[in-house]
Design goal:
mainly beta, six-stranded mixed beta sheet, four-stranded antiparallel beta sheet, 15 strands, elongated
Length: about 270
């Protein structure tokens, strides 16, 4: 993915007719044990004096080469410990504005001329950058949070397996309802008061830009701003008349899909003239 002042990624909106971060590699560390296993599977105390359990300096990787045992002698006084090592990692962003995730929209099935609610976030057809959790996420790592805008543009719907666009008189429309913008810890991302995404109408004309996020300077916290479009009330699709004739003498079930392009624009800090 190319990152610049504008970041473009694609997600899919699909309907059937009826309509249809990588952790760095870490060197394995050894687990320790105060109990040894003999060839018959019996556990004995690992000890230097024959009385006090001690940890081994190296007993392999937990769950792979060894079993890390906290020895218990059963007498209430003889016991030992076990240890193992795990990893914590993070990539720290600084001074950048990043488009982290965009959702796919699956609207199940609907008749020509009807409106259907969001069914799931699964894509059909060619895979793009969209996710199946309904997550829309921007991360702003600029210290003064000068604001940004995130818009979405939807292309023409075409039948899966065909490059011909739908020629119905009216366009398909996806209506997104306003969703709370949450920070990484699950609290609202608003700095002073709660903030939300914008209600937006995506029209399948391949040109109309709908604003989905547009927080103003200083209104939000540094870090993640996440909206989730995953339940049936978060999005709906209006299917235009003319996509199918709804003729019982010519029944059909055809799937259609469209590309949504998301554009993130930074609102740079304005420096007063000297």
């Amino acid at each position: 993915m190319k990152l610049s002042r504008n970041v473009l990624v694609g997600s899919l909106a699909t309907v059937g007719m009826v309509l249809g971060a990588v952790a760095p590699a870490v060197t394995a560390q050894a687990a320790t044990t105060s109990g040894n296993i003999d060839g018959n599977g019996n556990v004995t105390m690992n000890s230097t004096d024959g009385k006090t359990p001690v940890e081994s300096a190296d007993y392999g990787v937990l769950g792979q080469d060894g079993t890390s045992i906290a020895f218990d002698g059963g007498d209430g006084t003889t016991y030992g410990t076990a240890s193992a090592n795990s990893n914590a990692n993070v990539k720290v962003l600084s001074g950048v504005l990043v488009l982290q995730a965009v959702p796919d929209f699956g609207f199940g099935s609907g008749a020509s001329g009807s409106t259907v609610a969001l069914k799931d976030n699964n894509a059909t057809g060619a895979g793009q950058d969209g996710n199946s959790q309904g997550l829309l996420q921007v991360t702003d790592a600029r210290s003064e949070t000068p604001g940004f805008s995130l818009t979405a543009k939807m292309g023409n719907f075409s039948q899966v397996g065909s490059t011909d666009a739908v020629t119905a008189g009216d366009a398909f429309e996806i209506n997104l309802t306003s969703q709370k913008l949450l920070a990484g810890d699950g609290t609202n991302a608003g700095k002073v008061s709660p903030i939300s995404s914008s209600e937006a109408k995506l029209i399948s004309d391949n040109k109309t830009q709908a604003t989905v996020m547009n927080p103003t300077a200083g209104s939000y916290k540094v870090g993640d701003l996440k909206a989730e479009f995953s339940d049936s009330s978060s999005a709906s699709l209006s299917i235009p008349d003319g996509v199918a004739a709804n003729d019982v003498t010519k029944p059909s079930v055809k799937s259609y899909t469209s590309m949504i392009t998301w554009t993130l624009n930074a609102s740079p800090k304005v420096t007063p003239a000297a």
